Every structure is written in structure tokens, then in C-alpha cells.
Amino acid sequence: MRIKQSICYPIFQPEGVSLDELFAKAAEIGYAAAELWQPPENLELIVNTARKHKLAVASMSGHYSLPDGLNKRSNHDRIERELRASIDTAARLGIPGLICFSGNRQPHMSEPEAIEAVADGLKRVAAHAEKKGVNLNLELLNSKVDHPGYQCDHTAWGVAVCEKVASPRVKLLFDIYHMQIMEGDVIRNIRENIQWIGHFHTAGVPGRRDFDDTQELNYRGICRAIAETGYELYVGHEFKPKADLIEALRAAFALCDQG
Question: In terms of Cα–Cα distance, which of 117, 201, 133 is closest to 167?
Fold first, then answer.
């Protein structure tokens, strides 16, 4: 299965280049999709512009507040409302995945209790996501460098949540950059847990930069391994280019074009 690559629109937005020009260039390079973070006010404009250039919109955030997330039961009513609305929007616009967040660790809450809380929060909306055909992707983030205190910071932690929810629509956003920082062993972790993965993000380690010889990850090999699993969804680039954004996108696409 050939890798379907996506660009993360909030990062890849060159100064002086319109949204239309950016998406046209991405499509010309060979990208299959764009993706968003928080749903912007001009969401429909972005989706329509992507479609104009035959790009899908692969993903957007499903609820607000990364550090104040699903591991706090007091947040469940709010997040349920936000996720239900986001699921409806994603289904209407053909967006296959929504990003969800565990939140930061809570004092006096054990890891098993937090896993249970996140799973219970996702169970509230899992049936609605199944009905609408939208994945809820719990993001794996590092708590060492970028997101101190974030709880879903290891693959096994996220898998434990998915197993408790036991829904085909509750999966993980496997961010390769973050998981390299926290645990390494990227290819084996991907192969062993591919059934739970609904989306990927990329960036070079260290520094979230381009996939060049200053960083430690072999993205050609990683993407080849992903392709060999038969994974059918998207691999989204979320790195910060050192120089020209379009040329960085072109180089990343060529390296990750595996399958």
C-alpha cells in the first residue's frame, strides 16, 4: 500500500503564498491531503480549496485544550459536546479523523485511573463516531521536551485506552517525532500496534526539522515499514522547514514516497 502523504496547513503556510497556491503546489508534488489543528472559522473555505486541487482533508482537532483533556472526569461533559459537534462536522465534510488529547497528569491520580478516565470519556462518543464513520485519534506526545506533564506519552499507554474502549473508531495518532523522543524503537512499535493507529505525524529529531542528515530518524525506512503493514490512511508532515517551505515539502515527499 503506497503511503498517502499530508501537509499540516498551520505549519506550511509560506508568507506571501495564498492558500490556493499552497494547495496547488502540494497537489503538483503528489500530496494526497492537507490537515488542520483546531477547526478555524474558515474551515469550509479550506476544505473547498483542498477539494479544488483534489486534496482530501485528513484530520483536525476534535476538542479544545491539549493539557486539560480527557483524563479529568470533570471535563467529560464539555469534551463530549465538542467531540459530537466535531464528529458531525467531519462526517459532513469528509474528514476521516479527529485528534483527541489525554491531558496532563493529575495529582493523586494513578496511571490506571487515568487510563480508565480517558477511556470512559471516549466511550461517551464512540458509538456516534462509529455511526458517522469518523476516527477518534488519541495523540501520543512527548512529555520530555515539548509537552511537560502530558499523560499519553507512550504507545502502550495509548493502546491500553484503545483496548478499554474497544471501538473500531478509537485509535491513536502515532506521532513519530514524539515517540522517538520518549521510547525509540519506532518501526517495531508501529508494526506491533498498527491495528490501533489511525494517523501518523512526522518531524525530524532533534528539533522538529527537515528529514536531512542532521537528524536521527530514517524516514525512508520508517515509511517503507508503514507501507508494508497495509496501512491505508495518512502520514502527515508536521516539521518546521529550515529554508524554503515548498522545497522542503518536495524533499519530504520524495523521501517518504514508499510502497
Answer: 133
CA distance 40 to 36: 8
How far separated are the first and last CA of the chain, in Å rounded? 5
Full pLDDT tens readout for the chain, 259 residues: 899 999 998 888 878 889 999 999 999 999 999 999 877 788 999 999 999 999 999 999 999 999 999 999 999 999 999 999 999 999 999 999 999 999 999 999 999 999 999 999 999 999 999 999 999 999 999 999 999 999 999 999 999 999 999 999 999 999 999 999 999 999 999 999 999 999 999 999 999 999 999 999 999 999 999 999 999 999 999 999 999 999 999 999 999 999 9
Q: What is the DSSP string of the chain?
A: ---EEEEETTTS--TT--HHHHHHHHHHHT--EEE-SSPPTTHHHHHHHHHHTT-EE-EEE-SS-SSS-TTSGGGHHHHHHHHHHHHHHHHHHT--EEEE---B--TT--HHHHHHHHHHHHHHHHHHHHHHT-EEEEEP--TTTTSTTBS--SHHHHHHHHHHH--TTEEEEEEHHHHHHHT--HHHHHHHHGGGEEEEEE--TTTT--SSTTSS--HHHHHHHHHHTT--SEEEE----SS-HHHHHHHHHHHH---
The single residue listed with the C-alpha cell 491539549 is 66
Nearest-CA neighbor of 131 among 173, 171, 172, 167?
167
Structural domains in the chain plus CATH codes? 4-256 (3.20.20.150)
Identity of the residue numbered 93: L
Radius of gyration of the CA atoms of the chain, in A: 17
